[in-house]
Amino acid sequence: MEVGSPAPPEDRSPRALWLAWRWRLLGLALAIVTSVVVFPMAEADTDTAQALTAQVIARGHASQLSELVGADAAALDGPLRVALSVDGPPGASSAIRAELARIQGVEIIGSEPGVHRLHSVATIEAEQLRLQSTWTPPGAAAEETLLDDARRVGRWTAILPPLIAILVALFLRQLLIAMGLAVWLGAVVNANLAPIEGTKSAVGYLFSNVTDSFNLYIIGFTFGLVGMVHIITRMGGMAGVLAIFSRLATSARSTRLATALVGFVVFFDDYANTIVVGTTMRPLTDQKRISREKLAYLVDSTSAPIAGIAIISTWIGYEVGLFEDLARQLGINQSGYEIFLSIIPLRFYCLFALAFVFLNVLLSRDFGPMLKAERRAFKTGEVLRPGAVALTSAAFSSVRVKEGVEPRWYNAMAPIFAVIAVTFFGMYWSGWSGKGAIEAIPALGDLFAGKASPVELASAWSVAASEMFNAQAWRDAFSNADNALVLFWAAVVGSLVALALAVGQRLLNVREALSAWLKAIPAMWMAVAILVLAWSIRSVCDDLGTSIYLVGAVQDLISLAMLPILTFLLAAGVAFATGTSWGAMGILLPTMIPLAFHLGDGSAQGPIILMLCFSAVLDGAIFGDHCSPISDTTVMSSIASSCDHVDHVRTQFPYALTVMAAAGAFGYLGVAFGLSPWVALLLGILSLAGVLRLIGRPIETS
Q: What residues are paired with 149 via a beta bridge?
């Protein structure tokens, strides 16, 4: 039987199926009943829920207003005076007013003639909060509508879609059914329990996510990179690399260490890290009898944690952008990038996760489901659990070296280096902001379409090249780059380089090379389906207000000393339930950081609590995303490692939970109560080593 193919049960009678599934079904039913009882009790009161919903809408309102008044405010010596009036429910009105009062360059005043007027009206319509605003310049005859947006007020039913997806996936191990059911259920809830209308809406969610440009580029990147790896494998490039690593990685432990080190090299993007490391190292880890579960763990644990703290990455633009906005709003005398750098020693989950990877590799000790998986692989050579369904089909594993081809390591390294180089310099090209008349480097598409000339391209590159040794220029470029587009083209270039090497050296003909590349399509269909469903669940959760419900459920429990750990847990819950770390950051940074700022105002612990909360949101989001079976990065780790997705989640979770416990105890609690951050880091790492020594068991012994 082929590795990774499910083993058919001997008896498929109803009684046999019931005996095999009864505990899973009972566990699922119990978990659902418990959740349906508990979650309504945790629901925030109506005013709080409306205020949080209004705050989210008003934030977009404030962004549009800032752009609108920017030119007028710049022409004045002082701030632009705006008469603001807000009508609506008390909680919502207060949140809207507070959000708009933070706009830079604007002074909010009462009614006064001869000034700009902004009138906002919040209304509740069928469980939705609608915000309509009108902007009236002085002397203008007509009002200009700025915003007319509506969001569902987050109630306990908003947690049902991710809850069902997670529970069905974990108890029944039917991932596509679980995620599809979650999308449908969320759409039905959003349609006020109308099943036909909800079904139409569910199709709409799927279609919109399939056709979204960012998602298409990520899908294209995945296909392109896997196709490139197929060509590399077919022409013997991967065999050449493995021959070198085989000489260096003489044992399973050194192979695990090499895998972790490769994960550190591709630090600038979590997607690129996941696919490159997983697909490159998988043949060698299989050869050394390392389980696919362990490979997926190593891949997943060196992707987001390293990309999240790297000083140049595709993450930093998003993180610093949120920080910068909050620093301006709250009057914090630090730039967004300075805040990012200052909290790196406080990024306890990311730092401990990376430390735990190396401790685990160097000590060669495991516990829980991972120990069982590693011992199975070591003793039997079965890198997948019997009956497991790897997240790539047989088409992926069927790609083999062409008979008679001499393995050459550079046939693998050249395309991979091309992907890394195009990604790195493509980010600079895509995001670089010029000086004077040169605003950016023209894209090749603009050149071909006649929107830019070769002279303009050369001129822009000349200026850009002069700044290539400027660290700030690189940081700004990564902040502004269209990373999905760049990754897509990096995969295209990598595929073309692999194709050229294969055909140019006469290792493969064009037909053989294209045939190998096209095997990426049947190999990846299930993975792409799961990615689309994960994105659709995220869209459903956004429309239902899942994040708003979770914030409201715990907001009243917060005190200053407990704020960092509760912020971490809240971010983890949001990211786990929604499958997106960036979404959790986007909703919680503007919510929790002002709360930390005001609670700590005048307190000696205020500044460190504030920085801890910045870190807690980012790390909690990464932890939740790290553990969530509906997270796209978790899915991509399973794809790259060709691992059963549920097995990956099940074996990784105890390790992530162990790291989270150390980060919470020594970091977000310990430092909040006065422990030095450096002492917290030392104690946390020592505690993780102690866990592996006391609880972990060697893989090689029974």
A: 131
Together in a domain, 163 and 286: no
Please state the rounded mean pLDDT for residues 313-331.
72
Of 153, 188, 223, the residue at which a domain comes to its end is 153
Q: What percent of the chain has pLDDT over 90?
A: 23
pLDDT at 296 over 50: yes
Q: Residue 52 is part of a domain; what is its CATH number?
A: 3.40.50
Can you tell me the mean pLDDT for 393-414? 74
Alpha-helix runs per DSSP H in 546-695: 546-554, 563-578, 581-599, 606-627, 632-641, 645-662, 677-694
φ, ψ dihedrals at 85, nearest 5°: -130, 135
d(CA 313, CA 310): 6
d(CA 325, CA 317): 12
- Contact (Cβ atoms closer than 8 angstroms) between residue 488 and residue 275: no
Which two tokens mark 524? 């990846």
> Do 284 and 378 lie in a common domain?
yes
What are the φ and ψ backbone dihedral angles of 369, each rounded to 5 degrees? -60, -30
* Residues 629, 171: Cα–Cα separation, whole Å: 12
Look up residue 663 and give its DSSP letter.
Answer: I
Q: Are residues 260 and 370 in the same domain?
A: yes
Domain assignment present for 573:
yes
Instruction: State whether 33 and 147 are in the same domain.
Output: no
The whole-chain average pLDDT of the chain stands at 82
Global confidence as pTM: 0.71
Query: Are β-strands 128-136 and 144-152 bridged in parallel, bridged antiparallel, or unpaired?
Result: antiparallel
- The residues facing 124 across adjacent strands are 129
Residue 393 has pLDDT above 60, yes or no: no
Q: Are residues 110 and 184 in the same domain?
A: no
Q: Please tell me the total count of domains within the chain.
A: 3
Domain with 301 in it: 249-270+280-392+477-488+525-702
Q: What is the pLDDT of residues 6-22, one digit of tens each?
A: 444 455 667 766 766 77
Q: Is position 428 within any domain?
A: no
What pLDDT sits at residue 354? 95
Calpha distance 598→610 (Å, rounded): 9
Give yes or no: residues 131 and 162 share one domain: no
Q: Is 642 found in the same domain as 547?
A: yes
Q: Which residue has the tokens 């310990």?
A: 670
Distance from chain centroid for Cα 174 = 23
Whether residue 347 has pLDDT greater than 90: yes
Quickly list DSSP for 228-252.
HHHHHHHTTHHHHHHHHHHHH--SH
Residues 6+ apart with CB under 8 A from 230: 396, 399, 516, 517, 519, 520, 523
